[in-house]
What we know:
The complex is a heterodimer.
Chain A: E1 2-6, H1 10-21, E2 25-30, H2 36-40, E3 53-56, H3 62-67, E4 75-78, H4 83-95, E5 101-105, H5 109-117, E6 121-123, H6 125-141
Parallel strand pairs in A: 1-2, 1-4, 2-3, 4-5, 5-6
Chain B: E1 2-6, H1 10-21, E2 25-30, H2 33-43, E3 47-49, H3 55-60, E4 68-71, H4 76-88, E5 94-98, H5 105-110, E6 116-117, H6 119-130, E7 137-142, E8 147-153, E9 174-181, E10 184-186, E11 199-205, H7 209-216
Amino acid sequence: xxxxxxxxxxxxxxxAKSMLADGHDVSILDExxxxxxxxxxxxxxxxxxxxxxxxxxxxxxxxxLVEAGIERADAFVASTDGDNTNLVIAxxxxxxxxxxxxxxxxxxxxxxxxxxxQGLQTICPTAVAIDMLTEAVRETAx
Amino acid sequence: MYVLIVGAGKxxxxxxxxxxxxxxxxxxxxxDQGRYATVxxxxxxxxxxxxxxxxxxLDRAGIERADMVIAVTGDDEDNILICQxxxxxxxxxxxxxxxxxxxxxxxxxxxxxxxxxxxxxxILRLIEHEVPQYGPLHLLDLPQERLEIIELEVAPDSxxxxxxxxxxxxxxxxxxxxxxxxxxxxxxxxxxxxEAGDEVLLVLDTGLEDRVxxxxxxxxxxxxxx
Lengths: 142, 226
């Protein structure tokens, strides 16, 4: 399958490398040309030699999304550092390009919950961390 | 009317002043502490500090009872989100969004955020208006009602020049509503003469634009309108 990941930070780059290792076609879009270093860290090969694609562009720009391959994406991951950017581009992927699988990283639990109820698959690292921390403390108390 | 404005930049602050002057109740939300302090000197309790795309900040500002939400931050994604949440989560019937980059207008449209106001787009339209030869200028588009109002300049060698309105041969579903000549405008009658160089305003059903425009343009320049 063809996976498009927008946002090449710690999360996006790691997901990209895992998907590539699983044998999928992976394209990643980030506005910072230096972000490709995240994909090549600890690797002998360049990202492109490994078979990945990297596009420099602004997440919300239609031209950049198209260049990165959104029209043929089977899966779309929104993992920029902006919750609102992620929520907007995920809806573009879902509603304009009919990408079958759309996953959005949203740090704010409230927005993650509400947009989750509206039919977006939101992943909230903050909520996950809160649950795990609370659970860890409870285990100590027990 | 209770109005919530998100973003206390030049647009938000001046809007707030005008609306308060007209007697409306409002709250402005500003995310930048320095800017908040500046604006708070004048607007006092009418400005709140916080990220207007956070739901609790909107709750605190009373979005539940807002008659209108206006998102005028410098970030298009934020403006889209704020308006979407205002309308779909809180049931605010009237939203207005600022679109900073006109290339993002399609995203506002896709997500049903309207009206979206783009200063760049407005200025571009005004520039088009000042250029002597131009294709149809869209003054108003009502996609839901399937109507539009366009403005055209009458080319000297066009089919329309030198004919009266009722003989223009316009398709059904289109109507000349004003003629502008020598700096003044008038509402035409069926026997009003169309002259070369006139600017005409037409109301028409969506989809008729090319056929209507062809009557007012030079036969050689018909491709330019597209």
